[in-house]
Amino acid sequence: MQLSAKYNPAEVEDKWYSYWIKNRCFHSEPDNREAYTIVIPPPNVTGILHMGHVLNNTLNDVLTRKARMDGKNACWVPGTDHASIATENKVVARLKERGIRKEDIGREEFLKYAWEWKEEHGGIILEQLRKLGASCDWDRTKFTMEPALSKAVIDTFVYFYKKGLIYRGVRMVNWDPEGLTAVSDEEVIHRDTKSHFYHLKYYISDGNGNPTDDYLVIATTRPETIMADAAICVNPKDERHFRLHGKKVLIPLINREIPVIEDDYVEMDFGTGCLKVTPAHDAHDYEIGLRHNLPVMDIIDDHGRLNENAQILIGEDRFVARKKIVGMLEEAGNLVKVEEYVSPVGYSERTNAVIEPKLSTQWFLKMEELASKALESVESGKVKLIPDKYRSTYRHWMENVHDWCISRQLWWGQRIPAWYLPDGSFVVEPDEESALKAAQAINPGLKAEDLRQDDDVLDTWFSSWLWPISVFDAGRPGNPDHKPNRDLSYYYPTNDLVTGPDILFFWVARMIMAGNEFMGDVPFRNVYLTGIVRDKLGRKMSKTLGNSPDPLDLIKKYGADAVRIGMLLCSSAGNDIFYDESQIEQGRNFCGKIWNAWRLVSGWNVDPDAKQDETGRVAVKWFDNLLSKTICEVEDHYSKFRISDALMAIYKLFWDDFCSWYLELVKPGSGRAIDPLTYEASVDFFEKLLKLIHPVMPFITEELWHAMGERREGETIMFERSPKAGPYDAAFLSAFDTVRGLVMGLRSLRQQNGVSPKDRLDLYLEGADSLQELFPVLDKLGNVQVQAGAAEGASASFISGTVKASVPMGDYVNVEEERRKLEAELEHQKSFLEGVRRKLSNEKFVSNAPEAVVASERKKESDALARIKAIEESLKSL
RNA sequence: GGAAGGUUAGCUCAGCUGGUUUAGAGCACCUGCCUUACAAGCAGGGGGUCACUGGUUCGAAUCCAGUACCUUCCACCA
């Protein structure tokens, strides 16, 4: 088959992806082979592919394809995450464009829009993954909010509630008074904001609600909240305030009496050392309030206006109230001073309104027990983190875990299965029907319309933590008695998980918890944590910065294989990736190299009667050994998840060894034919190389594998076995390296002395008896006639390994420089030898160290000796 | 503020048990080549006192301590 002069990825990629789909090459069913399973970190259903996805999914695909070629039953389960916050935001924004507010249309109508959006946009990112070459089992595509998976989430909630791990509690939420909604911590942007620090006098009460002459001073940025104060707090060790202990003070303007309390939380050297405690409007104050049993008074309504609890300035906006109350305080003589002050203030990402901390009732899951088991899973090595530096981070988090707030004030998501009775009590049941029954058990007269379901939905992570279980058998989570179906028992636990370290806690840790709880086993064995993809300037790729290239454009421009290589080249585990388009260019160039190499080999004429010459025989022997050795290295890299090292080893084998040395050695001169033995060996090497490359570059390898020979419909390189390493002759390989060093030394000498590579030279070798077999290599690639003994007259000489070579070079040689170099090396060798000998004469070392280590030291000793001898002889002959 | 990690060539990174790596790779750079597979290429070359300071050792990029800077995660100071 004739190849086009240039590789055209676009054509090839579409062709083979359709071919793989048509032949259901990615599909997996349980059978009697060993399973290799990966579940995709489900991308947001509304998301579009960015460079982070490319990195992540390329790694997943490499691992999957490698396992498949190792003969395992590989199954990579794809799917998407409903991503409640992100998706709801998008739908809200879209409705806003049409002038619709979600509150106006109500929950049901809104959800219709949301599902519409999902149907329209939900498949995009999966479609994009296909362009990358992802070998996912698309028949198994799942969505975290599809009915079965949603039911699993609800069952899980009921399960934990009945187990006593889910409870209702009060928590500060970030309230957006403009959007009239609570927003998550991630949606709050902290910005340093100029404000004022108001120092206010609080007079000490005489005990009957009347002020005395004594007062204390507090510093606050929010004077409009003083009416909600529940106490003044000082540090118990603060001598300045000992006189206040047990006293009561009066809130300015409204003269309400509040106690002075003591708590370590107050820093003595910040502000005045007196803190006003306002439990309803500050998260820390709320905590202090709990510790000291303080009443909670809420004086700000949902729109950010003061309510009647405030007694004054009722109905005023919080910022207007702030201005007004400062005037009032000044007039009343309570304002001591005002300082300029810069402090971080939270703003809503959506509306840019200043966030108002607001108390609300939320649902929580107790984490202590789940976390300690999940910690044990990693500590014991049942789950390996790669790189393992994350173990300590993981431990720290698991040991300091707080209860998980699982309710979200949103509509897009699984609605909390709690139903409130008219009296305010509630029941938790998987559905409305059983909720009614449960409610009637409390109050037999109740009807369905008396019940009101909780308005909140569950945190998205509360569904994604079930992912490795629910994609196979959604009936299991929440129902430990449910017998796992065939898929779940075959594919669980999965093997590897590839994801970013930023969600180690949010997602990975929680999956381990769910796995332990519902399966009695961890969900995966290895967690490969990638780095974060950054641009050249080290900034995170983000949409707002606009510094993220569109991966699809890159695929169009360079081809999917090139993009995959580009990402892998610079991605050692756990290190951030500095994205640079030149790496993708490198990938594209590699495609070109592979393509052209096959163009060369496929263009050879074979002469059936030709005999293999010595050069061909030696070349084949060498590459066969090298291939085995490199396969061993590559396998070792894969086993340690050093994917970029594995790739680099393959890259160099193909480019530097196969193309630059092997093919150059065996290629017939122009107009000549090649012998059958060498030809067959070359084609065989090429096929093995393609198989080695396939996991990282699926498209071009499939194309060339088909170009190499007749294939039946449905045959694919991805079902071929990875090439296996045979035994290899290390001594022969090292001899070849010596010869290679000689050839390179020759080339260098020629270049420096202006001698053309075409001029044939005599090469004098000393100590080269063992290299005789490889002389044809020197002949062909060095263009020299090999002679024994020393060169006469002026010669340039050099050492490669223990072999000394010299070439007649006329007047060009700089003997002095040569001597200096050799003397320096001699000195180094001698001192090294001394050290090695000292070590070997140490009895403790010889008897305690492993045998292999001692052997390698002995080899070092003999090598150094030989080298010293060679150098000394060179020096003599100079 | 708490925790973890990092600092090696212009850039991105290897360097696993301290020594044959008197510091390696890829890219970029310089020089010479359109040599019929490949200029997206070939051949050759230059470039680093391994952040800094001390310590352990015959020997340190590698182990220990301190300093500086950077990154991430957590908590964010009334």
Walk me through what this model shows.
With 878 residues, the chain is of the alpha/beta class. The protein is built from 27 helices and 29 strands. The radius of gyration is 37 Å and the shape is elongated. It starts with 8 loop residues before the first helix and ends with a helix. The mean pLDDT is 87. It binds one RNA strand of 78 nucleotides through strand 8, strand 12, helix 10, strand 25 and helix 18.
Query: What is the overall number of helices?
Result: 27
Number of strands: 29
Helix content: 40-55%
Strand order of the largest sheet: 6-5-14-16
Q: Average pLDDT, to the nearest integer?
A: 87
Largest sheet, in brief, is: 4 strands, antiparallel
Approximate strand percentage: 15-25%
Determine Rg (CA atoms, Å).
37 Å
What is the SS-derived class?
alpha/beta
Distance between the termini: 57 Å
Task: Please state the overall shape, judged from the principal axes of the Cα atoms.
Answer: elongated
**Low confidence ranges:** none
